[in-house]
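Need a sequence for this fold. Nothing fancy.
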């Protein structure tokens, strides 16, 4: 495994829509493992492929923060959202800042695992928040795009000072 280099805002790869993944071959399996290693080395609970410069619909999530309990989620689609709550979020691509972001409490998620096998699950709370944050990355959306204008200006000013 190898640690990958994180892309930081305002890198353009973070602001474009990623392409669906169709290749689950051995090079891609290695890339999944490299993403997992990178997430743990960076102390993240989630990582989306655009954050390491790859514009494909892949994300890693580990809501328990325990190595070995991570999920590889490919081509995710959120089909139902229920409830709404605010919660604090940070982002490896925006180091040093965090903001209160509204997210659905429960979501229904369709995705493929690392072998390409389809799944359809309901997830909630912290896990659902991670997934919504990472799916946003696949659509070129960052947490600063999910807060109001004044808060966005304040977060970006803080970010530029760091
Ligand atoms: Zn992020």
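Here you go.
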């Amino acid at each position: 495994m190898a640690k990958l280099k994180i892309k930081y805002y305002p890198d353009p790869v973070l602001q474009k829509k990623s392409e669906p993944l169709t290749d689950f071959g051995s090079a891609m399996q290695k890339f999944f493992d490299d993403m997992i290693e990178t997430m743990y080395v960076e102390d993240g609970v989630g990582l989306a492929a655009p954050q390491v410069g790859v514009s494909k619909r892949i994300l890693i999530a580990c809501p328990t923060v325990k190595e070995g309990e991570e999920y590889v989620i490919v081509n995710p689609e959120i089909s139902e959202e229920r409830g709404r709550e605010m919660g604090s979020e940070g982002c490896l691509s925006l180091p040093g800042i965090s903001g209160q972001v509204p997210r659905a409490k429960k979501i229904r998620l369709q995705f493929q695992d690392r072998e390409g096998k389809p799944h359809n699950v309901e997830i909630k709370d912290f896990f659902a928040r991670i997934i919504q944050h990472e799916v946003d990355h696949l659509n070129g959306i960052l947490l600063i795009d999910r807060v109001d204008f004044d808060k966005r200006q304040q977060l970006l000013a803080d970010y530029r000072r760091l």
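For context: Residues 91-93, 133, 137 surround zinc ion (CB under 6 Å).
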